[in-house]
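Thought: the user wants the 3D structure for the chain below. I'll pass the sequence to the structure tool as-is, report back what it returns, then summarize two notable features.
Action: structure_tool
Action Input:
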Amino acid sequence: MPNTLNEDDRCELLCYLIVAELVAMARTGEWLRTDHLVESGRIWCNANGARFDWQERISLGQIAAELAPLVRETFGLTREPSLVPLFVDGWMLDRESPVVCDIHEVCSRRLASSA
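Observation:
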């Protein structure tokens, strides 16, 4: 499957994966298992009509796992009530939320540093 993600798509997916990690930690006390992280990426791709190769998905999943603890601590997103306002329409991130915008910026800087 060809990579059709542009840089903003990559950043959006990374942001989503980080928040999925935060939800898992808040609900279970553990970070996502690899298979759940992969499934979260598929959910986002299906919802957004995005297609990319497995290597890109793995790379973004690894970055999400690396950044999630930092984002959790930086923004105090340790409990479910602090995560609820990040969403609209079920599992879609609220792009107008200041915290989502801040997480997106963290993602953008991280992706730019690895380019």
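Final Answer: Structure generated. Helices lie at 7-28, 34-48, 54-75, 80-83, 98-113. Residues 92 and 100 are 11 Å apart (CA to CA).
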